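Notebook p. 47: complex prediction with adenosine-5'-triphosphate.
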Amino acid sequence: MSDTRPPARRPADVPAPRAGEPGPHTGDVPVLRAEGLVKTHHGEGAPARAVRGVGLSVAHGEFVAVTGPSGAGKSTLLHLLGGLQRPDEGSIWLDGRCTDGYGEARWAEERRRRIGIVFQFFNLVSNLSVADNVELPALLAGRSPRQARAEREELLAELGLDGKERSMPGELSGGEQQRVALARALVNHPPLLLADEPAGSLDSRGTREVMRLLSRFHGRGQTIVLVTHDARLASAADRVISFFDGRIVDDAALDGTPPPRGAGISGVLELRD
Ligand SMILES: Nc1ncnc2c1ncn2[C@@H]1O[C@H](COP(=O)(O)OP(=O)(O)OP(=O)(O)O)[C@@H](O)[C@H]1O
Ligand SMILES: [Mg+2]
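Predicted complex, structure tokens below:
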């Protein structure tokens, strides 16, 4: 299969906005849309064709789990969707806005305001305390120190991290660091959460806490894209996308019906591959 296939058919009611222009703000505009994403990593070894032509659309309030074997390209896809890496080909729209022209600063702004990211390997700031790691994004987004502190206290309590506020990340277990990373991603109540294995280092109790928290945010209308190997976590989602060898090979709503495709039914549209 070629990576240079034509772009996915665009639903008739969602015209392509120009770069940086707002799209039509109807209820049908997906919070996240990607077309024709391709990404090859050029490291020391042979080039790794991590993402090989992915199109997907995520509606407001949807909870999507992405599953697939190690090396399938799941983290790469998430990094593309959060603007942490740039695709070699293809485009991404956030709330109908094409991000083609976005530079680092604009993507950083989007992540500060609208996209929370939980990294597979945590990426906590090692010389900041747990409390400061969680509060930092809130302060950067303009919250008062008091608001940031209140939000941090609530999240850490909910994640079973009471008493760890003053700890440094290096003093925490892997599972504890993972929960701090989740709290940090959620502190600004981002409309879109991209979470890469947020329970990968957790025991079953920790996994339940993460599930409860994600379900609570989802219940408030937050959109979640969750990469996970954990069938229990995936079962909390509305929709499961199976990723294999850089491509989407299956996409199903968890009630057993495929998600609506094509022209504009509730903004959940086409998936190729
Ligand atoms: N920075 C990089 N440089 C070179 N190759 C990379 C880089 N990042 C990822 N890859 C390669 O791209 C492919 C996809 O990697 P990716 O991390 O996206 O997979 P994954 O599905 O998240 O795997 P896992 O479930 O193990 O986390 C792999 O073959 C990997 O070795
Ligand atoms: Mg990964």
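Notes: Helices lie at 74-81, 104-113, 130-140, 145-158, 174-186, 204-219, 231-234. The two ends are 10 Å apart (CA to CA).
Next step: compare against the earlier run before touching the bench.
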